[in-house]
Amino acid sequence: MKPREIRPGVYWVGAIDWDRRLFDALIPLPDGTSYNSYLLKGSEKTALIDTVDPTMQEVLLNHLGELGVENIDYVVANHAEQDHTGAIPLVLEKYPGAKVVVTPRCKDMLIDLLMIPEERFIAVGDKETILLGGKTLEFIHAPWVHWPETMLTYLREDKILFPCDLFGSHLATTDLYVTDEGQVYEAAKRYYAEIMMPFRTTIQKNLEKIKDYAIDIIAPSHGPMYDKPDFILKAYHSWVFDEPKNIVLLPYISMHGSTYKMVEYFVEALAQRGVTVKQFDLTATDIGKLAMALVDAATVVIGTPTVLAGPHPNVVNAVFLANALRPKLKFVSIIGSYGWGGRAVEQLAAMIPNLKVEILEPVLCKGFPRETDFKVLDDLAETIAEKHREHSFT
Ligand code: FEO
Fold first, then answer.
1. Cβ contacts of residue 140 below 8 Å, gap of 6+?
2. For residues 337 and 257, is the Cβ–Cβ distance under 8 A?
3. Are residues 272 and 348 in the same domain?
4. Rounded to two decimals, what is the model's pTM?
5. Are residues 222 and 335 in the same domain?
6. Which of 19, 47, 274, 384 fits a disulfide with 74 by CB distance 3.0 to 4.6 angstroms?
7. 3-state DSSP assignment of residue 349
């Protein structure tokens, strides 16, 4: 895609990665992604806000060439992660007068990660500004969204907020702005779940910090821009502030059908009691979908067989992830079967120190489940439905 003008003197010069399917060697990207970079031309100075993944750095340089950019004064790095900074060394080589504008913490990280010489940096404080001539850049420190060095950049005259990862979505599209709100909502929620959810309380503070800024456009560094910023601001507000919903997640593994039989029965038992259930077969599920479901769920019930005296390794992986993502969960329980013994429950319970949850009495059965086991599953379903009602989860 060619460079696009957003406002007079403000251009999108990023790269669209249609075919990327994995991020951080972990996160599925079903819809690809983009690395948005923005060029700002003032009457006196020129700035570039964020760059692109190093695999696409030639795309960025070609865009700058097409716009006839002969000089760049500032390269603003809102965030040190390489999908936004990886092209900075090449940009600095091509534009030897350019300085990298960063938070002090980001400067140290970019020296470590990209070996950029110290003299190429300008470290800015919170709320500090840089004048380009008719364009004023204000830097808003936002540490731990989602790394410790992050900041947002606000272009005062055009009322554009450049928040880098915050509010972003992994979505490859030729649309400069959101056109399909349903699609972008899903992609942005997936992005929030995978990247931002562990920093929910920090994001709460930062939503407060930016609430008095007049914002016409939010221009993140992944996915389309928001020319109706309320759409994504309201979505984030509900994800970080709202109470969890009347939803149980049931991620499970079954090796020979016993645990599956329990899962099948339990899903119905919860549904009969008015609880929404989302069931995930961990041999096949997209972990991004599981992460998204964790944004709203009040309860997780883990289904696992016992393997070598512990939980199934795929279950361990999912529980490790859930603990790291720090969702709003209130209750956790475990169901499953064993052949001759084991410590699956103790091991799983020890893996979730980040989750401030009540652990409800697990239901483990020996071999294939029987009527007595189904009765105990009914009791657990009743307990969960009652707890959700007590908390008015809807
Ligand atoms: Fe898009 Fe945290 O990098």
1. 126, 127, 151, 152, 153, 154, 209, 210
2. no
3. yes
4. 0.96
5. no
6. 47
7. helix
End residue of a domain, out of 207, 225, 241: 241
CB 15 within 8 A of CB 55: no
DSSP-assigned states of every residue in 300-334: EEEE--EETTEE-HHHHHHHHHHHHH-----EEEE
The DSSP bridge partners found for residue 49 are 38, 76
Closest listed residue to residue 191, CA positions, set 15, 14, 12, 23 = 23
Q: 291-319: per-residue pLDDT in tens? A: 999 999 999 999 999 999 999 999 999 99
Burial class (CB in 10 A: 0-12, 13-18, 19+), 255: middle
Q: Taking CA 96 as the corner, what is the angle to CA 92 and CA 98, rounded to the nearest 5 degrees? A: 65
Domain residue limits at 125: 4-241
The percent of the chain in helix, strand and coil, each rounded to the nearest 5, is: 35, 25, 40
3-state secondary structure of 220: strand
Distance, CA of 46 to CA of 55 (rounded, Å): 24
Q: Whose CA is nearest to atom 2 of ligand 1?
A: 81
Atom of ligand 1 nearest to the CA of 195: 2
**Rounded CA separation 361/343 (Å):** 15
What separation in Å is there between the alpha carbon of 245 and the centre of ligand 1? 29
Residue 164 alpha carbon, nearest atom of ligand 1? 1
| Closest C-alpha residue for ligand 1 atom 1 | 165
Q: Which of 212, 241, 270 is the last residue of a domain?
A: 241
Considering the domain architecture, whether residues 208 and 157 belong to the same structural domain is answered as yes
Q: State whether residue 246 is helix, strand or coil.
A: strand
**For each successive 10 residues of the chain (394 residues), what is the average pLDDT?**
96 98 92 98 98 98 98 98 98 98 98 98 98 98 96 98 98 97 98 97 97 98 98 98 98 97 98 98 95 98 95 96 97 96 91 96 96 98 98 96
